User: Which sequence fits this backbone?
């Protein structure tokens, strides 16, 4: 029905506007370069760059030994478990108690506060709870309440109230000294435990393991940055961090917890605090977090903060899949030795941590700040392309029926639904190229995310995939330039670009839909030129 993109190119270079082959090719190349420059500038203007601040404050580590000063001698008991029910406001959860057999009470107790995820006692904190119980501490791991916990909605103050019910249950146990019950919080639980401590001054202690400390949005940007650097992505990919994490509204709504600030609650913690990080945890601000806790608790006149770093340990304080034995020893010793171990010396010990960048405020896009609007825009643009293709197919079918029924049509009338010479190929390449490039970009980002979360590198995917996405984007711009030249040539020759209302509208819809997708691609960095 028309010429291919290659044929259109040959026609341009043969006849164009009377140009010779070199002149026409140069003009196409210049037009493509100008279009790419405009898209690069547009992408830079529409959103922020990513330039995290270097971390200059370093936490001083006194000794590599993590041993807790004044910790009592270790004891070993058999451990038995018992499942209990915890009544909540509007629901209930089961909890598993790990109890030392033969230990004389009343004993200290620990309630575990889960990190992100489903949080079932059958899988979570099994090793830690057993180690504590074996040393003479009653450990309680409640199931996480999930009916009020989703990806879009999390209320850390409400979650603190739910975990406080477990604290009440543990305090009521006959084996437990209610004045010696504290909490162990890991990861996301680090935004919950300080709320519990601020609202319940009688809580005996707080253990913060791999605590984010900074608001969720800042921690997310910090973690993504670290994962991408570890994966070895091209510099241009980092532009996506503030444009994704910095949105004021996310697709589907809610996510209001993303800016939750735990600082005011940490500034009211008067309990002894044990802060624990693994030096192999790239997802958390391991130096900044400890410094912030030390600063915040000092506002409450509390200097009973002990900080420990474990060499090579990951987010779960594991090395090679196993919880670090010295961490289990130090944890149980610190808990059993309270209040004597509250001011354990040295205050900061273990392997020297390294944090290159600060987890700080995330720059926000200037205009494209609503994720739902952006998603709707992409879907609408893709729908425009599909609608145009469907309309042309139906119009072509109607025309063919007319041709079969009418035998008195002239040759021109029979071919009357054809677009101007050389238009079809670039038009199809423009619409299909824009759509395929968007799909390729989404695939690339998801592939990189999988590699990053698994701490893997794959140059073919990371480097080659990004190059392929950008080449697709450039080829789409080439198609747009060729289409513009063919349309201009047809109009100068007095030809119709598209016969009939349907096909004329279809051409306009394809150009508009593809144009929107090109702007979206520019926004996400496909056309960036270092500006």
Assistant:
């Amino acid at each position: 029905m028309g010429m291919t993109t290659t044929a259109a190119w040959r026609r341009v270079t043969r006849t164009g506007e009377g140009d010779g082959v070199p002149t026409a090719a140069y003009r196409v190349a210049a037009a493509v370069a100008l279009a790419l420059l405009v898209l690069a500038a547009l992408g830079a203007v529409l959103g922020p760059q990513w330039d995290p601040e270097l971390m200059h404050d370093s936490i001083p580590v006194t000794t590599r030994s993590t041993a807790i000063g004044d910790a009592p001698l270790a004891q070993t008991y058999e451990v038995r478990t018992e499942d209990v029910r915890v009544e909540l406001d509007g629901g209930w959860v089961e909890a598993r108690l790990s109890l030392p057999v033969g230990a004389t009470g009343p004993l200290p107790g620990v309630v575990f506060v889960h990190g992100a995820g489903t949080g079932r006692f059958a899988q979570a904190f099994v090793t830690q709870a057993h180690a504590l119980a074996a040393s003479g501490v009653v450990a309680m791991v409640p199931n996480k309440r999930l009916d009020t916990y989703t990806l879009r909605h999390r209320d850390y103050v409400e979650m603190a109230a739910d975990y406080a019910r477990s604290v009440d249950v543990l305090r009521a146990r006959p084996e437990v000294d209610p004045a010696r019950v504290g909490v162990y919080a890991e990861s996301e639980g680090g935004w919950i435990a300080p709320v519990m401590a601020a609202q319940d001054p009688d809580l005996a202690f707080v253990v913060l393991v791999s605590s984010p400390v900074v608001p969720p949005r800042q921690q997310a940007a910090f973690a993504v940055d670290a994962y991408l650097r570890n994966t070895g992505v091209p510099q241009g990919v980092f532009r996506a961090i503030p444009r994704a994490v910095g949105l004021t509204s996310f697709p589907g709504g809610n996510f209001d917890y993303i800016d939750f600030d735990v600082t005011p609650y940490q500034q009211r913690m008067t309990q002894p605090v044990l802060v624990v990080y693994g030096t192999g945890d790239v997802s958390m601000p391991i130096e900044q977090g400890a410094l912030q806790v030390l600063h915040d608790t000092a506002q409450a006149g509390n200097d009973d903060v002990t900080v420990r770093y474990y060499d090579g340990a990951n987010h779960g304080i594991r090395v090679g899949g196993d919880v670090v034995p010295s961490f289990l020893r130090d944890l149980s010793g610190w808990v059993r030795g309270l209040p004597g171990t509250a001011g354990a010396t040295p205050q900061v010990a273990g392997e020297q941590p390294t944090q290159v960048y600060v987890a700080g405020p995330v720059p926000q896009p200037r205009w494209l700040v609503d994720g739902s609007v952006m998603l709707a825009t992409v879907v609408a643009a893709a729908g425009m392309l599909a609608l145009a293709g469907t309309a042309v197919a139906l119009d072509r079918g109607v025309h063919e029926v007319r041709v079969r029924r009418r035998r008195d049509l002239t040759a021109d009338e029979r071919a009357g639904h054809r677009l101007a010479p050389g238009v079809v190929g670039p038009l199809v390449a423009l619409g299909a190229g824009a759509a395929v490039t968007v799909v390729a970009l989404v695939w690339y980002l998801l592939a990189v995310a999988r590699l990053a979360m698994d701490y893997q590198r794959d140059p073919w995917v990371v480097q080659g995939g990004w190059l392929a996405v950008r080449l697709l984007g450039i080829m789409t711009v080439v198609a747009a330039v060729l289409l513009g030249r063919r349309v201009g040539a047809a109009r100068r020759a007095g030809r119709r670009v598209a016969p009939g209302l349907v096909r004329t509208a279809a051409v306009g819809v394809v150009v508009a839909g593809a144009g929107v997708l090109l702007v979206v691609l520019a926004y996400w960095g496909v056309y960036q030129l270092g500006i």
In short: The chain has 15 helices and eleven strands. Residues 5-47+365-523 form one domain. The CA atoms of residues 217 and 258 lie 5 Å apart.
